[in-house]
């Protein structure tokens, strides 16, 4: 059973990102402040849930959260500053957009660039331990999936509606055959899946 938050003394926002290991599209991040009595039976790490479960939970989180925000860093920025810094930047942008300012941040992973004037803790596999991080993982994942599904109509060869920009065999073969789209990350190797280089434990 997931705990509500990492600590209880300060108003805490859970933060997570989605799309680090993709060949195309932005990296998305979310920040979520949940009420102390928040209950959602299925809420856990978004990777352990079905698409239908994630979409249902997104509606609940967005309705019942004290505050939530989603932000992105596009592929051009990723190529300029690298995916690790882009992930931090996306989380900073999400935190910035919160209508209620948190006094503490719980971050999924073991690395983070400190946000000004707000203390934080990095928690490895935090999306499977704390509800606020799990909620952030749901929002980051569903908002990013929605973005990739929408742009897949412009570039059907890559089948982004299915792979969401991750380096599947179909996606990589299409990139090699048709070339890169304006949404591809030029600094990522098409033939060497980035998922092997950037694991969640490194975020």
From TrEMBL:
Broadest EC class assigned to this enzyme: hydrolase
Cellular localization per UniProt: Cytoplasm
Alphabetical keyword list: Cytoplasm, Endonuclease, Hydrolase, Manganese, Metal-binding, Nuclease
Any one Gene Ontology BP term: DNA replication, removal of RNA primer
Cofactor note text: Manganese or magnesium. Binds 1 divalent metal ion per monomer in the absence of substrate. May bind a second metal ion after substrate binding.
Pfam families found in the cross-reference section: RNase_HII
Domain RNase H type-2: 10-200
HAMAP family: RNase_HII_B
Name of the protein this chain belongs to: Ribonuclease HII
Gene encoding the protein: rnhB
